Predict the 3D structure of the following.
Amino acid sequence: MSETSPRLRAELEGIPTYKPGKPAAADGPVAYKLSSNENPYPPLPGVMESALAAAGSFNRYPDMACTGLMNEIADRFGVPVSHVATGTGSVGVAQQLVQATCGPGDEVIYAWRSFEAYPIIAQVSGATSVKVPLTADEVHDLDAMAEAVTDRTRLIFVCNPNNPTGTVVRRAELERFLDRVPSDVLVVLDEAYIEFIRDVEVPNGIEIYRERPNVAVLRTFSKAYGLAGLRVGFAIAHEPVAAALRKTAVPFGVSQVAQDAAVASLRAEDELMGRVGSLVSERTRVVETLRAQGWTVPETQANFVWLRLGERTADFAAACEKAGVVVRPFPGEGTRATIGETEANDVFLQTAQAFRKEL
């Protein structure tokens, strides 16, 4: 019998592995998980009831077209239903976007550091990643990103607010950037954290998309809406792009439980914004306290804060875990901490203060 292994795609060699936020230990001192940017609140009113009702039909396939959810999204955001596409979280839709636009040798541009799934989904499709460093203020360098465009560029991700730094791109600079990008290059505004933005100069990507056929907007129900465990996200894009996304979607990928829960979540907007407001207030408190302790904290418009710790990153993450909170370290770069329950934030701040005194 031959010893030869099955031939796999060379593009998969050396592919980076997505590192999920470390869970809180079930049997140790860790009590709070601030590593995955999850919403600490329980499901919104009506969501659990909708999910439980859908669970009674587990023996049936979900609506592959996500008809109810697609119509709800179209109505909520004032767009044609043909401009909507759904997927397994915004990261699932992002992968569909790369599959729809890129093949071997094509280029995907994004800031770095940014969402760690970007290099993975680019490499899976055989595309080449073009990473453009953030500015000294931890913000997208849009001028450098525009200059990085070549005739092989097919897709550009703009993560706004940026994960993991929380920084934003404002309207004037974004419009200038889009004016420089060729019209046949798709620009994806990844707005997973848009509900937490309070800077009035940051545009709603859907407003931008309406006037620009080469702009697509990514949204998710995982963060503000608190449906991280159900895996449902969506894109709003002009019809050719949205149609391509529906072609590249995994059949029956979004469960009926997720679809019905997402619809119920969209209908609980008042409660949602109240919860988001509470998290934004906590964010302000956390940032102000960290700065008073002497930390340099970028202006965050997301539900997390970023501390650039360099070589002390692992030590800080270990100190947090020992104190009772898990954060998300990016070795050699920095630490991202989600804004969670007040008690969790207090433990994080106490740890940060003690660690700061040791620097």
